Amino acid sequence: RTIERPPPSKDSSRATNIDLEGLDQLLLGRPCGRLKREVVSRLVSPRNVNTAPCIRFSKYSGILEWRNAIVLWVNIYGDSYKNVFLEKGRQITWFAQARQTVETPVIQRMIP
Description:
Elements: H1 20-27, H2 36-44, E1 63-65, E2 70-72, E3 85-86, E4 91-92, H3 105-110
């Protein structure tokens, strides 16, 4: 059973594509901001952050759903979360918020 939700507003991340090619070429494996807002701008427009539209998203969520991708915010250090890299960095553990379940639409998108 999947939880139903309303369609996204046009200025939300769920209604916006990120630049996957730019992400791969310019951002992957590199620092791209200290704040989530900075990272979101870079994901939309990695070649020129000044042209990125203002995107609505929840800064408190550990998941950022886009039209063409899902971004997981991962805490590497800290007492609250014990995320670790596995398989020589090809896998990482990630803990969702308690309100994210297998019925949540964004989690459904991640399950093959």
